[in-house]
Amino acid sequence: MKAVIILPTYNERENIVAILSQLTRVTRTISGFSFVFLVADDSSPDDTAGAVESYKGNRRDIVIVSGKKEGLGKALLRGMLYAVNVLGCDVIAQIDADLSHDPSALPKFFEKMRQGHDFVVGSRYIRGGSIPDNWGIHRKIYSIAGNAIVRFGLGETRVHDWTGGYRVYDKKYVERLKDEVAPYSGYVFQIAFLHNAIKLGANVGEVPIHFTDRRFGHSKIAPSEYIRNVLFYVAKERFSSVVHGTFGKFLVVGTIGFIINTIVLELLVAVGAHPVVGSAVGAELAIISNFFLNNSWTFGHKKIKSKNIPPKFFQFNGTSLGALVIQSGTVAIGTFLFGVGMYRWFYLLGVGIGLIWNYAMYSRVIWR
Ligand SMILES: Nc1nc2c(ncn2[C@@H]2O[C@H](COP(=O)(O)OP(=O)(O)O)[C@@H](O)[C@H]2O)c(=O)[nH]1
Ligand SMILES: [Mg+2]
Buried b vs exposed e over 262-289: b needs ≥16 C-beta within 10 Å? Predict the structure, then answer.
């Protein structure tokens, strides 16, 4: 099997040779794989590429893939595509080039792969892992909190370290995710790549790692931009999982129905209709909208065939009437027991129970 180790570099002249020679030594102890070291450099002004060239000599297991400076994500993706499409690898490893990641942990990653995992991440936040002791309290909190926001925000708590770049994974994730993750040019790429792999069903394993501060050169991270991108990513994913989930779509459709109901009522009353007529017509139009939007969108995967639409629509009117009875019944009972002044609370309660009723009826009866 062929493994490619990607080292993203921007101004790592003082580190790159040391890490390449450590990796060369360590990978000899990993059996069953041949290794290629791929430096994904962004034309570093300190001539990192030149340092690699002169170290490499005539070794063919070291390659440099150079590009413009467009961010860490772009550099990683460039390296991944080269590794899969040009070098034809089976497995990809990636590691920071600044020696913050200890190359001697690499065999443990491959051990996890052998045990059946297909995406192994180095984790600072599990037993046996660590962040530097000498970090100030602010930096520690920032790092721990950042990871917790991603972990709990995405609801993927099995993985404890989302932002690190010490990983080994199957090449299929590059093939399947290359378009999906292409828009994430910066550090958030690491989060997006792992998250999308999990969505595809990755069997993630974690290896505890000690993260040490770099001794040479400096960090390229732009903290405020990074925090913004991370929060945006988490919020976007959260929103789309709610909207794309059946219940979220159901809520959106219901809200549209409510708006239709209200507008029709107000319009009819404005032209002189009695409010009872206005709300009845409004309610029926909302029911029609709910039925067809739910049929084509929310429950589009169980769409009702056109010959079944009339009886199903009739049934739908029945369950909607049920919701109306539940809602007004809740208000009636609540105000009877606790006084008319409490009607708003029982109206809200009635709407809530009505929603549960409707969702249960739709998913169990109408779109069974
Ligand atoms: N090619 C490339 N590498 C980058 C870029 N930004 C960071 N890196 C590399 O990614 C790794 C991690 O970056 P670093 O600045 O150490 O981030 P930190 O460890 O989070 O402070 C290092 O090997 C960097 O050289 C970039 O824009 N392009
Ligand atoms: Mg670093």
Answer: eebbeebeeeebeeeebbebbbebbbeb
Q: Which domain holds residue 40?
A: 2-241
Taking the centre of ligand 1 as the mean of its atom positions, its distance from the CA of residue 52, in whole angstroms, is 16
**Ligand 1 pocket check for 220: Cβ under 6 Å:** yes
Given 207, 241, 275, the domain boundary residue is 241
If one residue of 14, 16, 23, 72 were mutated to test the ligand 1 pocket, choosing by the most ligand atoms within 8 A of its CB, it would be 72
Instruction: Write the single-letter amino acid at 133.
Output: D
Same structural domain for residues 92 and 234?
yes
Q: Is the CB of 69 under 6 A from ligand 1?
A: yes
Question: Rounded to the nearest whole angstrom, what is the distance from the C-alpha of residue 51 to the centroid of ligand 1?
Answer: 17
Q: Which of 183, 209, 241 is the last residue of a domain?
A: 241
The model's pTM is 0.78
Q: Which residues of the chain have pLDDT under 70?
A: none
**Which residues, chain by chain, have CB under 5 Å from ion ligand 2?**
98, 100
Whether 16 lines ligand 1, by a CB cut-off of 6 Å, is no
Whole-number pLDDT of residue 239? 85
pLDDT digits (tens, 9 = 90+) for 132-160: 999 999 888 888 888 999 999 998 999 99
- Which pLDDT does position 139 carry in this prediction? 87
Task: Identify whether residues 197 and 333 lie together within a single domain.
Answer: no
In this structure, the number of other CB atoms found within 10 A of the CB of residue 318 comes to 12
Looking at residue 241, its pLDDT comes to 82
Helix residue spans in 1-93 (DSSP H): 13-27, 48-56, 72-81
Same domain (yes/no): 198, 180: yes
| 78/94 same-domain check | yes
